[in-house]
Amino acid sequence: MALFKRGTAGKPGEWYYCLKHGTVEEGPECRAADRMGPYASREEAAHAMETARERNAEWENDSRWTDKGGSGS
User: Fold this and answer.
1) Which run of H or of E encompasses 36?
2) For residues 13 and 6, what is the distance between their CA atoms, to the nearest angstrom?
3) Calpha distance 49→13 (Å, rounded)
4) What does pTM read for this prediction?
5) Nearest to 8, CA basis, from 28, 25, 24
6) What are the per-10-residue average pLDDT scores of the chain (73 residues)?
7) DSSP 3-state of 15
């Protein structure tokens, strides 16, 4: 008896963006390390890379996460 199932079955309505293939998929088709999600819609998943770039830029410029001007503690 296997401890882990291979190939997690996807759920209808869950969308993922596959980093390896650059495609949107409904339910997880590719391995977890190669995908982003889940997203609520196909369109959200299609914009996954853009969303990630925007969030990274916000975090990089967030004064709470930089060492600039800190109290030194």
Assistant:
1) strand 35-39
2) 21
3) 20
4) 0.69
5) 28
6) 56 90 93 94 97 93 71 50
7) strand
